[in-house]
Design goal:
With 265 residues, the chain is of the alpha/beta class. It has helices at 24-27, 34-42, 59-63, 115-118, 173-189, 206-217, 235-246, 258-263; strands spanning 12-19, 56-57, 72-81, 87-95, 99-100, 123-124, 154-155, 158-164, 194-199, 223-226. It has 8 helices and 10 strands. The strands form 3 sheets. It has a 6-stranded mixed sheet with strand order 3-4-1-8-9-10, sandwiched between helices. The structure holds guanosine-5'-triphosphate and magnesium ion (MG).
């Protein structure tokens, strides 16, 4: 039976944050900004933002309750108030690839699919998995807030596809785009909405951003939101834009370019 209280429960969505991941050979020596985007969205306060989230882990940390032998993280949930006062709850998942600190190869998980296939999954499950907060939490779970990922299968409702438009670190932009192209094909198969978050726009290389825009304009209905997790620009917007695609009765957020959004902060 439904609860008797008059207040209906706010609708709840699960958004999966994806983008180039893997060994140093694949992604260069820094990630494209998935973790920082998630961190900024679920914990936007300045003192709760961690700029470094390592993906190189010991076997013990990989098997701990936070990572839980998965190549994805549960970042918790956040309740948003729409302009029209309609609330919604968003669960955030990051699809990444954890690397063994001994072999520098991906950790062996129960799911043996390659990243591109795995990241497009629209059903996720992990028994008693704990919300991830920061790297220091691994191994010291008792010292941090302990919140469990919802039990049973979590249905992914949409994808935020991160593309790093900064200079990157010894990674070729073209290689990233090739990866993203393949990943996008897989995401499309899920039939769930996708939005592109151009990440690290505070260090934007203009022609990279233009290439991302060109990539998106070739696809039907693919929006690009120019974000910076470091400076907290357009982070909430990329999530609310995705939620609007899931619930068309919500007001459309205005998508404004990075520089304008930065100025109006
Ligand atoms: P993996 O999960 O390992 O694949 O990486 P990731 O995609 O989660 O990347 P992560 O968020 O860990 O960021 C990688 C690096 O980019 C870190 O050093 C971040 O501080 C930096 N970074 C992330 N977001 C921004 C941003 O908005 N601006 C700038 N300038 N740097 C950023
Ligand atoms: Mg990450």
């Amino acid at each position: 039976m439904m609860a008797k209280n008059k207040e209906p429960r706010p609708p709840s969505y699960t958004i999966s944050v994806v983008g180039l991941s893997g060994t140093e050979k694949d992604k260069g020596n820094c990630g494209v900004g998935k973790s920082c985007l998630c961190n900024r969205f679920v914990r936007s306060k300045a003192d709760e933002y961690y700029p470094e989230h390592t993906s190189v882990l010991s076997t013990i940390d990989f098997g701990g309750r936070v990572v839980n032998n998965d190549h994805f993280l549960y970042w918790g949930d956040i309740t948003l108030n729409g302009e029209d006062g309609v609330e919604c709850k968003i669960h955030v998942i990051e699809q990444t690839e954890f690397i063994d600190d001994q072999t520098f190869l991906p950790h062996r998980s129960t799911n043996l699919q390659p990243y591109i296939k795995r990241a497009a999954a629209s059903k996720l499950q992990s028994a008693e998995k704990l919300m991830y907060i920061c790297t220091d939490q691994l191994g010291l779970e008792q010292d941090f807030e302990q919140k469990q990922m919802p039990e049973g299968k979590l249905n992914v409702d949409g994808f935020l596809l991160c593309i790093d438009v900064s200079q990157g670190c010894n990674r070729k932009f073209d290689d990233q785009l090739k990866f993203v192209n393949n990943l996008f094909v897989q995401l499309s198969k899920s039939k769930k909405p996708v939005i592109i978050a151009a990440t690290k726009c505070d260090e934007c290389v203009d022609h990279y951003l233009r290439e991302v825009q060109a990539f998106a304009s070739n696809k039907k209905n693919l929006l690009v939101v120019e974000t910076s997790a470091r400076l907290n620009v357009n982070i909430e917007t990329c999530f609310t834009a995705l939620v609007q695609m899931l619930d068309k009765t919500r007001g459309k957020p205005k998508i404004i370019p990075y520089l304008d959004a930065f100025k109006t902060q």
